[in-house]
């Protein structure tokens, strides 16, 4: 497995890069090099590394910046600083901002080897811990960094949290993370799909029942509230609760006690309520289909999970992690995504979000025969019309065509400033692909101008990775 581990080397001196590459390659590691901070950032955004070695003084800034960035954005990745001989201050600074160690120039190969071994061991341990928590909320996009920070804050409170977001964005994972990071982590986490319980059984499911309280109640049965006592009750698909049940739930939440069906007295319960839906609950309140008082009670803190298309740059990382997890379960080495596959994923809108990405990769894994997944292995749903594989595609809702175009155009789902706001459906006469390419070309050229042809900034503004931009420039014949 050592041959799959890779190290990012950041140094502006060619000779040092060469020395490090040679030494690490002999240790069976893969290496990539960057001469500047900017180049390092690009690489970090498009791949995962097991270790980063960075020089202190770089042409476009300080290696300390990179150390700080890596330790906050990629906390699982050890980073070490290469410092000038005798520069104790620099070494101390590096450790303070999150480097795990430093090595001084001229680099002693034995010291370097020892450091690399330790770093990789550190990374392995972090990875094992991550695996134990099975899935963590991954992503380094601004949207995900903000979300994780918010979660860390709300985890410390006991207030009810209402989680909103499209299907498959990770609402349940967010709820589990809030629970796991909070004071109730050692208590139970009880998820309930409110849409899956038959109405007539609901009260007994939530509050439990006494033996003989109704036909079929053969014994005392505790309800979900009792099961979650001391922990968290997660009301998933909360919009599906029938109105009469909403009244009872409100009471339970307000009074912190419940009465099992057929029981003479109420019992106290101590649960934290988290809830989620992909629906617009405030709209349902306006329509009179959800009680305002319950909405008010469960929505003390509101948290919205961004759709995948608004998490610019997260796709390679997420895909890697998902492929690794799926392959591990199948006891085979994890394949890598070819450049054209990454570009194709980045151009696709993912109406079904992370869950859809998982489905697509699972199918691709079954189809791909080598250790490479190409764009054609992905079988992404194609624009309307002529695809029979579309039926097998896990697209959830909305036309993949519309979202796909949207994604290609805008940063995180927002349209560019000069959108020729024409519906693609009104274009009978123009061949669809060339119509889309025209719009893409216009949007990219405008963004390029606005950012003085700085490709990194342009890609960020368009909400796509540098790699995707490079791919599009080539494909669209833009110089
Ligand atoms: N940021 C993320 N990092 C890693 N995995 C994620 C992330 N977000 C979602 N997932 C994974 O995607 C899948 C869907 O997530 P989850 O079930 O939490 O979504 P949901 O919003 O509850 O979906 P639905 O609306 O379909 O119920 C899960 O397997 C989850 O582990
Ligand atoms: Mg869910």
What would you note in describing this structure?
Helices cover 46% and strands 13% of the residues. It has 479 residues and is of the alpha/beta class. It contains 20 helices and 16 strands. Helix 4 links the parallel strand 6 (79-84) and strand 7. The protein folds into 3 domains: 2-132, Response regulator (Rossmann fold), CATH 3.40.50.2300; 142-306, P-loop containing nucleotide triphosphate hydrolases (Rossmann fold, 3-Layer(aba) Sandwich), CATH 3.40.50.300; 309-476, Helicase, Ruva Protein, domain 3, CATH 1.10.8. The two termini are 41 Å apart. The relative contact order is 0.08. The chain has helices spanning 14-26, 37-46, 63-73, 88-96, 109-132, 142-155, 171-181, 202-207, 224-227, 243-255, 281-286, 292-298, 315-329, 339-347, 353-367, 375-378, 400-409, 432-450, 455-462, 466-476; strands at residues 6-10, 30-34, 51-55, 57-58, 61-62, 79-84, 101-105, 161-164, 189-193, 232-236, 257-258, 267-268, 272-277, 301-304, 336-337, 372-373. The model is unreliable at 384-429 (pLDDT under 50). It is globular, with a radius of gyration of 26 Å. Strands 2-1-3-6-7 form a 5-stranded parallel β-sheet, sandwiched between helices. Helix 6 crosses helix 7 and helix 18 (432-450) crosses helix 19. The structure holds adenosine-5'-triphosphate and magnesium ion. The site of magnesium ion has 3 residues, from helix 7.
């Amino acid at each position: 497995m050592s041959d799959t581990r890779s190290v990012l080397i950041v140094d502006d001196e060619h000779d040092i890069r060469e020395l490090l590459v040679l030494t690490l390659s002999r240790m069976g590691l893969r290496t990539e090099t960057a001469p500047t901070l900017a180049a390092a950032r690009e690489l970090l955004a498009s791949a995962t590394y097991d270790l980063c070695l960075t020089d202190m003084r770089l042409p476009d800034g300080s290696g300390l910046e990179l150390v700080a960035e890596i330790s906050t954005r990629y906390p699982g990745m050890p980073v070490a600083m290469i410092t000038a001989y005798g520069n104790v201050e620099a070494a101390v600074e590096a450790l303070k901002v999150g480097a795990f160690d430093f090595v001084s120039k001229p680099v002693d190969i034995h010291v370097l080897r020892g450091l690399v071994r330790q770093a990789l061991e550190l990374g392995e341990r972090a990875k094992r811990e991550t695996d134990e928590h099975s899935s963590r909320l991954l992503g380094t996009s601004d949207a995900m960094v903000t979300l994780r920070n918010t979660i860390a804050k709300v985890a410390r409170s006991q207030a009810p949290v209402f989680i909103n977001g499209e299907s498959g964005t990770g609402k349940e994972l967010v709820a589990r993370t809030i629970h796991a990071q909070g004071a109730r982590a050692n208590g139970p986490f009880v998820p309930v799909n409110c849409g899956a319980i038959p109405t007539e059984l609901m009260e007994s499911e939530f509050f439990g029942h006494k033996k003989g309280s109704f036909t079929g109640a053969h014994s005392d049965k505790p309800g979900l509230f009792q099961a979650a006592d001391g922990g968290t009750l997660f009301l998933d698909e909360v919009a599906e609760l029938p109105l009469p049940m909403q009244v009872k739930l409100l009471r339970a939440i307000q009074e912190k006690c419940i009465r099992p069906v057929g029981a003479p007295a109420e019992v106290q319960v101590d649960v934290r309520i988290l809830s989620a839906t992909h629906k617009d609950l405030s709209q349902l309140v306006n329509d009179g289909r959800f009680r305002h008082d319950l909405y008010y009670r469960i929505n003390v803190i509101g948290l919205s999970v961004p759709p995948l298309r608004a998490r610019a740059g997260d796709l390679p990382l997420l895909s890697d992690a998902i492929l690794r997890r799926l392959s591990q379960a199948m006891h085979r080495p994890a394949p890598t995504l070819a450049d054209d596959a990454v570009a194709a994923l980045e151009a696709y809108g993912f109406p079904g979000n992370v869950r859809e990405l998982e489905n697509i990769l699972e199918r691709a894994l079954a189809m791909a025969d080598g250790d490479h997944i190409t764009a054609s292995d992905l079988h992404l749903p194609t624009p309307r019309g002529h695809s029979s594989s579309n039926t097998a595609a896990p697209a959830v809702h909305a036309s993949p065509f519309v979202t796909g175009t949207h994604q290609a155009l805008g940063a995180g789902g927002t349209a560019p400033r000069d959108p020729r706001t024409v519906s693609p459906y009104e274009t009978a006469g123009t061949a669809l692909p060339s119509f889309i390419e025209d719009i893409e070309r216009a949007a990219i050229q405008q963004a390029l101008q606005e950012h003085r042809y700085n490709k990194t900034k342009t890609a960020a503004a368009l909400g796509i990775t540098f790699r995707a931009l490079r791919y599009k420039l080539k494909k669209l014949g833009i110089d």
